[in-house]
Amino acid sequence: MKKIITKVDAGTLTRTLLIIIALINQGLVVAGKNTLPFTDDQVTQAISFAFTTVTSLAAWWKNNNFTNHAKEAQKYSDALKIAKKVQNIAPAPAAGVESKDDSIVMG
């Protein structure tokens, strides 16, 4: 017999298990069984907490540049990364901006 499923990644397995649990839960609700002992207020609070946590972590993880100097430095950093990948050279820094890579760039 030929093997149909060769390799299942963790994301596919997780999504499959969650949909099975959701379908079982929905079937029990239709049958009049309350499977989750939570009030609507508790569910609302949990969803709000999860949303706030995910949003906070995403904002913390993302590199947010607020000042003009930080924005200009990010542009220089992005250009430096692209130049190193594509051309294996570094771009010249903006006027008045020095970095530890200046000796490499300028020779």
Write the layout of secondary structure elements.
Layout: H1 10-30, H2 40-61, H3 68-86, H4 102-106
Total individual domains? 2
| Poorly predicted ranges | none
Strand tally, please?
A: 0
Structural class label = mainly alpha
**Cα-atom radius of gyration:** 26 Å
Give the overall average pLDDT: 79
Number of DSSP helical runs: 4
Assembly state of the chains shown: single chain
Proportion of residues in extended strands: under 5%
**Percentage of residues assigned to helices:** 55-70%
Main sheet, how many strands, which sense, barrel? Answer: none
End-to-end Cα distance, whole Å, is 65 Å
Overall form: flat
Overall description:
The chain has helices spanning 10-30, 40-61, 68-86, 102-106. By secondary structure, it is mainly alpha-helical. The protein folds into two domains: 12-61; 68-106, no CATH class.
Entry summary:
This protein is mostly helical. It is built from 4 helices and no strands.
Output the keywords.
107 residues; mainly alpha; 2 domains; 63% helix; flat
